[in-house]
UniProtKB/TrEMBL annotation:
Transmembrane intervals: 17-34, 118-137, 146-164, 196-216, 223-239, 245-261, 268-287, 318-337, 349-371, 377-396, 417-438
UniProt keyword annotation of Repeat present: no
Source species, domain of life: Bacteria
Protein name per its UniProtKB record: Glycosyltransferase RgtA/B/C/D-like domain-containing protein
UniProtKB keywords: Membrane, Transmembrane, Transmembrane helix
Keyword Membrane: yes
Length: 657
């Protein structure tokens, strides 16, 4: 058997993870940990190291997903919002990610320090993705070292499939090519790259890849244990990242159809039976009603998933989608040729290629980044790239045997390929992640002031579990769910699972309760869209990137629309648009609406709202007139940058009239 033929027998998983693969796993973990742990090498006086920073220092969505993971650690895995007390027992769309959330929470059950557990979660799962890619490739390639390099390529270079061309300019192809290197040489601070983004998709991709591996195993083994394994993983996939769930089930349906078309009824009925078993299991779990109830909720599904994301792709045109279509069509044709007579590999390429083309065609007519970005790049492309790599590596192996007869030249070719592989999958990623680590060393994004972190520790150790904290500073709003066991008075729309109108009403009530000036509120709302647009800026070569840091006052203004309403994903509040058509200026009617709500005391429509503690930062303390000498409050914690008041009266704080 040559190195690149499909093995006639599937070995055990342990046999297929040799020393080279374990070294590759450790390399992935090391590279992932480098940006997180590098700041520890340069301590900052009066500060505490943290791997989870505020959205003001954007680094993935750990501040959001970390709240869900900590909710699971607190025993609220199957409950609702981890930050809104009145929603804590109400189902949320995030429960459809319950498997990923549970897996990400495992390190927290081992390490008591939440900072350590988050670092483990962020770094271990990219390594697991590498191992699963390796195992999947190993089913088609017999050389373990080749599989290691191919799996590393899939892990680190998946972002290279993101590159778009936004106009037919003659320089665009060169920019696209350079973009493939830009995404990895200058590591994206937003999410490193898809495979390294916390929870979605670094954890969810592990479930997705394991399910695909089980499909190949079932196809070959056709035993009861292979069927049972595929069934368990397929059901778990339903409670994973929804785009990966959709793609996974489409792959199952496509494989079933291919078996019948290729006149392999035994395999066809086996996969058809697997599909029926999955449907039966999900019906017993009441899954359809869960999805319907979540989709009709006031938040995620109804307001976000069902709207067009096309406005997110600034400058995107028909040429983007056309470029994608040509790109996928060519890759399908070439990869099918490269697969040669390998019937099994060709079947997977046809199924995956067809699904990809359907998504691209939808994108061609709709220009909807919900399709192209989430379904294609966060789900389909990971498995697609594995099978394309298997086809091309097999073709190169066969071709080299035919083209090169001299043993000397064969050895030289192998050495050249080895050097190039080491450069691509080891040196380039190491340089990129080292640059990110160096940037983290240069600023304070991975450090919190002692007084700020001390306030969180005080709440965790002294406040009753489940008590409600009112925090105005968005740095605190982002981090309290991570480092305490408290709920929030108001918070980020996605995590709270409240409606945008309710979130804004709670914010306005908090503003009034603290006695903050009306003029500051009006200025904050007037500048909100402009600052949010700066916060969500786009770089032309490799997609989204955030400023390394963001001015605190500007950040507070930006979060009024981005955190409370989730603009630009949600473009209006109570029927009033938030921004003008250019997306850079706030709509005057929106400002008028918010100020009218504030003057009309909109929060009185909320009914009774609970508040047990008030955490105020130095950013608001100077103008928070209601907190001074207030008989309803008791100062329980004080530092140079944070104060905590306990609400000792059931009336909470009287309104400012």
């Amino acid at each position: 058997m040559t190195d690149f033929q499909v093995p006639g027998k599937i070995h055990t998983i342990i046999d297929r993870i040799p020393l080279a693969a374990l070294i590759g796993f450790l390399f992935c973990v090391f590279v992932s940990a480098l940006p997180e742990l590098a700041p520890i090498m340069r301590p900052v006086d009066g500060h505490v190291w943290t791997p989870v920073n505020s959205q003001r220092f954007r680094s993935g969505d750990t501040y959001q997903y970390g709240a869900l993971v900590m909710g699971a650690v607190k025993g609220n895995l199957l409950s609702g919002s981890p930050t809104a007390k009145e929603k804590s027992q109400r189902g949320s769309i995030e429960l459809l990610k319950v498997v990923s959330t549970a897996l990400a929470a495992v390190p927290s059950w081992i390490a008591s320090d939440r900072r350590v557990s988050i670092v483990i979660s962020r770094c271990i799962f990219p390594g697991i993705i590498f191992l699963l890619c390796y195992l999947l490739l190993r089913l088609f390639l017999d050389n373990p070292r080749v599989c290691v390099f191919a799996a590393l390529y899939v892990l680190f270079y998946l972002p290279s499939w993101y590159i778009f061309t936004s106009s037919p300019e003659i320089m665009k192809p060169l920019k696209v090519f350079l973009g493939y290197w830009a995404v990895i040489l200058t590591v994206n601070e937003y999410d490193y790259s898809t495979n390294f983004r916390f929870l979605v998709t670094s954890v969810s991709s592990c479930v997705f890849l394991a399910t695909m591996w089980s499909f190949v195993t079932l196809e070959r083994r056709q035993t009861w244990w292979a069927f049972f394994l595929a069934l368990i993983l397929s059901v778990a996939l339903a409670f994973n990242y929804p785009p990966q769930t959709i793609v996974g089930y489409l792959i199952l349906a496509g494989l079933t159809a291919m078996f019948f078309l290729e006149k392999e009824p035994r395999k066809g009925f086996e996969f058809f039976g697997l599909g029926l078993s999955i449907l039966a299991a999900l019906a017993l779990m009441n899954y359809p009603n869960l999805v319907l109830s979540y989709s009709s909720d006031t938040n995620s599904f109804g307001s976000i998933w069902n709207i067009s994301f096309s406005e997110l792709r600034e400058g995107a045109t028909f040429f983007d989608a056309l470029f994608l279509f040509v790109k996928y069509a060519l890759i399908i044709a070439v990869s099918l040729y490269a697969a040669g007579s390998n019937r099994e590999l060709r079947r997977w390429l046809i199924v995956l290629g067809s699904i990809g083309l359907v998504f691209v065609i939808l994108d061609l007519f709709a220009s909807n980044s919900l399709v192209s970005y989430r379904l294609l790049y966060r789900a389909h492309s990971l498995v697609w790239l594995c099978f394309v790599a298997a086809a091309f590596i097999g073709w190169l192996s066969r071709s080299s045997e035919q083209w090169i007869g001299s043993a000397l030249w064969k050895n030289r070719l192998k050495r050249a390929v080895s050097v190039l592989s080491i450069l691509l999958v080891i040196v380039v990623p190491l340089v990129g992640f080292s640059q990110f680590a160096w940037k983290n060393l240069q600023d304070s994004s991975h450090y919190l002031e002692d007084g700020q972190y001390g306030a969180y520790q005080w709440l965790r150790e002294n406040s009753p579990k489940g008590s409600v904290v009112l925090a105005m500073d968005w740095d605190d709003v982002n981090l309290i769910p991570m480092y305490t066991d408290n709920y929030l008075f108001f918070g980020h729309l996605i995590v709270d699972n409240r409606s945008p109108a309710e979130e804004v009403a709670r914010y306005l009530k908090a503003w009034n309760m603290l006695g903050l000036p009306d003029s500051r509120l009006k200025r904050l709302v007037n500048e909100s869209v402009a600052h949010a647009s700066d916060l969500i800026r786009y770089w032309p070569l490799y997609g989204m990137s955030r400023p390394q840091s963001f001015d605190r006052v500007a950040f507070e203004s930006a979060m009024f629309v981005y955190g409370l309403v989730y603009w630009p994903f949600i473009g209006s509040l109570d029927g009033v648009p938030l921004a003008e058509k250019d997306g850079r200026r706030v709509d005057f009617d929106f400002v008028k609406k918010v100020i009218g709500w504030y003057d009309g005391r909109i929060w009185r429509t909320l009914g009774q709202t609970e508040c047990d503690y008030i955490l105020v930062s130095d950013l608001y303390w100077g103008e928070a007139g209601n907190l001074r000498e207030n008989p309803h409050l008791k100062l329980v914690y004080q530092s140079s940058c944070r104060k905590i008041f306990q609400v000792i009266s059931p009336r909470v704080i009287p309104e400012c009239e």
